[in-house]
Amino acid sequence: MTLPVPVSLAEPVHPPARALTAAPTPAHLLAFVRRIAADTVLVGSLPLDPQGRTWVRLDGPAGSEAWLIGWPPGAGTGWHDHGGSHGAFATAAGALTEQSLAARLPTEGWETWELAQGVDRERELTAGRGRSFGEHHVHQVLNESQSTHAISVHAYHPPLPLMRRYSRTGGVLRLEQVEHPEEWQ
Predict the structure, then answer these.
(1) 9 close to 44: Cβ distance less than 8 angstroms
(2) Which residues face 133 on adjacent strands?
(3) Which of 102, 154, 166, 167 has the greatest number of C-beta atoms within 10 Å?
(4) Rounded CA gap, 161 and 152, in Å?
(5) pLDDT digits (tens, 9 = 90+) for 55-71
(6) CA distance 44 to 80
(7) pLDDT band for position 109 (cuts 50, 70, 90)
(8) Backbone phi and psi for residue 108, each to the nearest 5 degrees, phi listed first
(9) Assigned architecture for domain 23-102+117-161
């Protein structure tokens, strides 16, 4: 797995967000990431690195956290969750594959978990397609192309308090690491 390479743009990116009076739902976040993914000027401003993921933080709606991420060919996240935040992501360019688990895992108190049969899901998200997810979502995202970068927009609410990273061998998921925001910001 290639480690992300943070980048910064000349000016902070603050795309306009519709005013919300309450915390954004997964549907609100999905509408936001789709709108930002359609912004060709913003998407085109992200520097791309052939060796690692690149990203820039965006202002999300109603205090949510958002990211514009570049994925070189073959890049992926590995299995992870979002520390109890719900969210959404949309592909702006290229295609991404999401592999997810249709199972609600306990958030704490375990190091290995044997997965039931039939919990694996896979979907391809081409440019313009997105999805939202709840607070217990475990997945990995991959750019399976061997030649084309992908770019996506992600949003989370509340802002990510942590991310748990997992390894997977067959039907067994193992907690490997807990990351905190200061490790990726």
Answers:
(1) no
(2) 87
(3) 154
(4) 21
(5) 999 999 999 999 999 99
(6) 27
(7) confident
(8) -145, 165
(9) Sandwich (2.60)
